[in-house]
């Protein structure tokens, strides 16, 4: 069941709390099927959007690789933080929800969403920011370095590669993530080993400018921000 078209979307800024983000996403995704609407609404309690936003400069062109329903780009567009956002994913259904949210936000001229078969088909750009959030743990380990390489090639000189994924550190938070993914995807995922993305980034001359471990509820997140040299 879909919400009425009269649903208003609350304004949002970088200081928004998870509860405020929940209300924002619940309104922005009111034209999508109820299960996805609820998932989008509760995601701010798990995903540290507040930490990601600060690494996207104002007026940036952004590519979100594996964007799903487009939550990150929807948030950036609503905050009027970016000039353009392109999301791409290998699954069609979430992209329909992303397009519906963009239209409801009045951002259909800023945000576009593309169905791809692999990261190699993503728009070339280059982009000021390329984001890859909770993607690599779904990629077979043998293919991860190639997927990473394809994504970072789309970062312009001086630009930023924004990486966030679930923690591989032993313990309950890692187990909670595995159980969560199994419930929703029927996939027992294998997290990206610690140090792997740093090694791949070094192969592509990217500099690590920020790294942080972020516990949220029962989950743990690894945030890495890399910058490409100006030349």
Automatic annotation (TrEMBL):
Record carries keyword Methyltransferase: yes
Pfam families, alphabetized: Methyltransf_12
Biological process terms in GO annotation: methylation
Gene Ontology MF terms: methyltransferase activity
Keyword Disulfide bond: no
InterPro entries, alphabetized: Methyltransf_12 (IPR013217), SAM-dependent_MTases_sf (IPR029063)
CDD domains xref list: AdoMet_MTases
Keywords noted in UniProt: Methyltransferase, S-adenosyl-L-methionine, Transferase
Domain Methyltransferase type: start-end pairs: 63-161
Protein name (database record): Methyltransferase
Organism ancestry: Bacteria, Pseudomonadati, Pseudomonadota, Betaproteobacteria, Burkholderiales
């Amino acid at each position: 069941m879909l919400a009425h078209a009269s649903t208003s979307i609350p304004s949002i800024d970088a200081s928004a709390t998870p509860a405020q983000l929940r209300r924002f996403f619940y309104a922005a995704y009111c034209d999508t099927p109820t299960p996805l609407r609820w998932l989008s609404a509760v995601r701010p309690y798990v995903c540290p959007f507040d930490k990601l936003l600060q690494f996207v400069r104002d007026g940036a062109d952004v590519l979100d690789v594996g964007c799903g329903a487009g939550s990150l780009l929807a948030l950036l567009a609503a905050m009027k933080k970016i000039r353009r956002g392109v999301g791409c994913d290998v699954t069609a259904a979430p992209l329909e929800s992303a397009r519906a949210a963009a239209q409801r936000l009045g951002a259909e001229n800023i945000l576009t969403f593309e169905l791809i078969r692999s990261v190699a088909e993503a728009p070339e750009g280059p982009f000021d920011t390329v984001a890859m959030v909770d993607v690599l743990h779904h990629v077979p380990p043998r293919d991860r370095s190639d997927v990473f390489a394809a994504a970072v090639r789309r970062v312009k000189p001086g630009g930023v590669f924004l990486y966030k994924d679930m923690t591989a550190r032993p313990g309950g938070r890692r187990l909670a993530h595995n159980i969560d993914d199994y419930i929703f995807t029927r996939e027992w995922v294998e997290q990206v080993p610690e140090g792997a993305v740093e090694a791949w980034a070094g192969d592509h001359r990217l500099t690590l400018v920020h790294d942080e471990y972020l516990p949220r509820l029962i989950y743990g997140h690894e945030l890495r921000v890399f910058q490409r040299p100006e030349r």
